[in-house]
Automatic annotation (TrEMBL):
It catalyses: 3-phosphoshikimate + phosphoenolpyruvate = 5-O-(1-carboxyvinyl)-3-phosphoshikimate + phosphate. Monomer. Keywords: Amino-acid biosynthesis, Aromatic amino acid biosynthesis, Cytoplasm, Oxidoreductase, Transferase. This is 3-phosphoshikimate 1-carboxyvinyltransferase. It comes from Psychrobacter glaciei. Its EC number is 2.5.1.19. PROSITE patterns: EPSP_SYNTHASE_1, EPSP_SYNTHASE_2, PDH_ADH. The gene is aroA.
């Protein structure tokens, strides 16, 4: 059909065509006919034949040019086939095997002919093959494409039905590697994503994810149809009913066979579902609002979460790198604005609030992707959390020993803070756990927390030679003894490593002491104290005693100084600017950005200083100024580690050279921020040199003879910048537009939502000109 030609799949150039001499498809329903069409369109077989008892389907397929031959009798067409695809109802497969064996006995087929199926159950397929052949044929490769459509039959076929859908292959020990490899390549050639799975595991998983939903859909439609007022019920059924019950339009005979074929796993899934229904029923009867909100909230968040977890993507999809900023140069910024909540404190409020006794109310929570990953992890471990709703959360703490094992790996998205801090908490729990993230996070080093945790007695396995995620953590019940407190001298100042060990120390026997070479952020120490847990700070030595408790309370999250940094630099480098940022956290372990900008002679002042939730805050006002290049003191590096990308923009606009050393930590962030920023600066015409632990930037600022501000001249050219999936890179080069001569386009800005949702809108509010191109949907 012409419609099939429009959707022609292009096989990988690595596949040598044709792959097969003759493919025989048994059964020309939706799946069999779609597979046949995809094979035909892509030229994957010299000949294509089929057997189907429905003769009109065979006749039409030959007339359409899909088949070279076809018959209602398998023996008429199967001879010489090197691949047989069985696409009949599961209960009919054994009879097909009998016909195939007869063809082999008659010499029509080679014993190594590849045989595969497309059935929704696998154990019974293997059992049927054993019953017919005695021992499993070396060419048998059970498979199951996770694809379908509401309509069925030959006429519903689509050559692109399997594109970007999963196909499960059950690799049997009796099957030849050649057969497995060729079938995998065939499915990939028609656009499918191939995964391997044990047959028993396949049947259990599909019982829950496919068979049970279909059973429930059939049942719900039958239930409503049986009511006396069924006409009104169907007439006024909302979209949810239509969406959920769409699958009840599937072939009843097929599902009848599947339900019997996978009886044991489906009955088990039904029993589990029934128990959950009884729980929900009782919550409604008891009017248990907290528990019901927890259940509904976990379900809602999990539904959104699973797609990202399975695809190993951030919560915001960056796979296509489609979204971009197109930024027109502007000269000045002004106004008074509020910055979103602090990401570091948002993370910790969820962690400690979940482990506390009682309720914790959080305000100012940052609803960015990273913090949401932490929130979801604790929901997965049984914590009831209401929200977020406009920055508000209500966390019903489960106490120090109340976490439950997650039934799936805990997915951290792109958040290194989530993974490293949670490692410390999970290392002390009684149950096993697995931490994983998106592709970017799974490349970042995790031995920096895994190694010292092992010194405390943790059993933690990282991945690969470089010690990356996923991390597998063995529970204390298996290990048989609790963690032991240690004294750990940190080789590099890192708030994440320090916090990880202090959190593990809450459960450890004795004292856990961390000594840091330089001061790093102390949000964990401050928040532990706010939750009533004693922390001892002696210079750069921080200690906790294991065995204490946390008490819930109110946490107000101040504005994030790391997010404020972009606007501080924006005002500092642009002519006539005056910008006030309200109630920004000025924790002394985070104010490196202010100290460095002041050394560069930026005009910055603080007002309305106070404390919120144990954290100092203030309004910050920045005015345009004539910056000068400096050698950045190494003791300030840990206090501004996340702000250096935008500080590199400031240094480019300064008069003279700026030198950064002691910043190796920047090379293992979401990207190698030193290399990526240098690449972008070169694109915009800035002379800079990458060193092992820093960057040397030749500032292009021009000062006037009398010292007056002279920051009106462009410093940067224009061009295309690639963010390398790094939110801080994207936002930093946005700031550069204030001193650019031409438009700057920044590709891949979806990741900005990890830390600063609404960045572009806020930037435009103060005078910048950022046009967001969402790209292709």
């Amino acid at each position: 059909m012409s419609s099939q030609k429009k959707n022609k799949i292009q096989p990988s150039p690595n596949i040598q065509l044709p792959m097969f001499r003759q493919v025989c498809v048994i059964g020309l329903g939706l799946i069999g006919a779609s597979f046949a069409q995809a094979i035909k369109d892509s030229g994957l077989s010299e000949r294509l034949v089929a057997a189907d008892r429905h003769v009109p389907s065979i006749t039409e397929a030959i007339e359409h040019g899909l088949l070279d031959a076809g018959s209602a009798n398998l023996q008429d067409v199967v001879g010489g086939s090197d691949l047989i695809i069985i696409a009949v109802p599961v209960q009919a497969v054994q009879a097909v095997f009998v016909d195939i064996k007869q063809a082999m006995d008659d010499g029509q087929l080679a014993t190594d002919c590849i045989m595969t199926d497309v059935c929704s159950t696998k154990v019974n397929i293997i059992d049927a093959a054993k019953a017919v052949f005695g021992s499993l044929p070396i060419g048998l490769v059970p498979a199951h494409p996770i694809a379908g459509a509401e309509n069925s039959g030959y006429h519903a076929r689509r050559a692109n039905l399997f594109v970007n859908h999963s196909v499960i292959i059950c690799e049997l020990p009796t099957t030849s590697n050649v057969a497995i490899t060729k079938l995998r390549l065939l499915w990939e050639a028609v656009g499918a994503n191939v995964i391997s799975m044990d047959a028993n595991h396949h049947d259990r998983i599909l019982a829950h994810t496919s068979h049970l939903p279909h059973l429930l859909a059939f049942n719900l439609v039958e239930q409503l149809a049986s009511h006396d007022d069924n006409l009104d019920m169907f007439r006024y059924a909302a979209g949810g009913f239509r969406d959920f019950t769409r699958i009840a339009a599937s072939d009843p005979k097929m599902w009848h066979d599947i339900f019997f074929a996978n009886q044991s796993a489906i009955v088990s899934a039904l029993d589990e579902y029934g128990a959950y229904l009884q729980t929900m029923r009782q919550l409604i009867i008891d009017k248990d609002s907290t528990a019901l909100m927890g259940l509904l909230g976990r379900a809602q968040a999990a539904r959104r979460h699973f797609g990202h977890m399975l695809a190993s993507t951030p919560y915001t999809d960056t796979s296509a790198m489609s979204a971009s900023y197109n930024i027109t140069p502007s000269n000045t910024v002004s106004g008074t604005i509020a910055i979103p909540g602090d990401k570091s404190i948002s993370h910790r409020s969820i962690m400690l609030g979940s482990l506390a006794t009682g309720v914790t109310n959080v305000t100012g929570f940052l609803e960015g992707e990273d913090a949401l990953a932490t929130l979801q992890a604790f929901r997965d471990m049984g914590v009831s959390i209401e929200g977020p709703d406009k920055g508000r959360l209500t966390i019903h703490g489960v106490g120090m020993n109340g976490l439950k094992p997650s039934k799936t790996p805990l997915y951290m998205g792109n958040s290194g803070t989530s993974m490293r801090l949670l490692s410390g908490i999970l290392a002390a729990q009684s149950f096993d756990s697995v931490l994983t993230g998106d592709t970017s996070l799974n490349k970042r080093p995790m031995e920096r927390v895994a190694a010292p945790l092992r010194a405390m007695g943790a059993v933690i396995q990282s991945t690969g030679h470089s010690g990356t995620a996923p991390l597998s953590i063995t529970g204390r019940d298996t290990v048989g003894k609790p963690l032991k407190g240690v004294e750990y001298d940190m080789p590099v100042a890192s708030a994440q490593v320090k916090s990880c060990l202090l959190l593990a120390g809450l459960w450890a026997e004795g004292t856990t002491t961390v000594t840091q070479p330089e001061v790093s952020r102390d949000h964990t120490e401050r928040m532990l104290s706010a939750f009533g847990y004693p922390v001892t700070v002696d210079g750069n030595r921080i200690s906790v005693e294991g065995g204490g408790t946390l008490t819930g309370g109110d946490i107000a999250v101040p504005a994030d100084i790391s997010s404020a940094a972009f606007f501080m630099v924006a005002a500092a480098i642009s002519q006539g600017s005056e910008l006030t940022l309200t109630q920004v956290g000025i924790n002394p372990t985070r104010t490196g950005i202010i100290d460095i900008l002041k050394l560069m002679q930026a005009d910055i002042s603080l007002s309305n200083e106070t404390h919120v939730g144990g954290e100092p805050v203030a309004d910050i006002t920045i005015r345009g100024s004539n910056l000068v290049g400096i050698e950045i003191p190494e003791h300030l590096v840990p206090l501004a580690i996340d702000e250096f990308p935008v500080l590199f923009i400031a240094a480019s606009c300064a008069q003279g050279r700026t030198v950064l050393t002691g910043a190796k930590e920047l090379r293992v962030k979401e990207s190698d921020r030193i290399a990526v920023m240098a690449e972008g600066l070169h694109t915009l015409g800035i002379d800079c040199t990458v060193t092992d632990d820093g960057l040397i930037i030749e500032g292009q600022g021009i000062g006037s003879e009398n010292g007056d501000v002279n920051n009106s001249q462009p410093v940067f050219g224009g061009g295309h910048i690639t963010s390398h999936h790094d939110h801080r890179i994207a936002m930093s080069f946005s700031v550069a537009s204030l001193r650019a001569s031409k438009q700057i386009t920044i590709e891949g800005v979806e990741t900005v939502n990890t830390s600063f949702p609404g960045f572009a809108e806020l930037a435009n509010q103060i005078g910048m000109s950022i046009e967001v191109d969402a790209g292709a949907e």
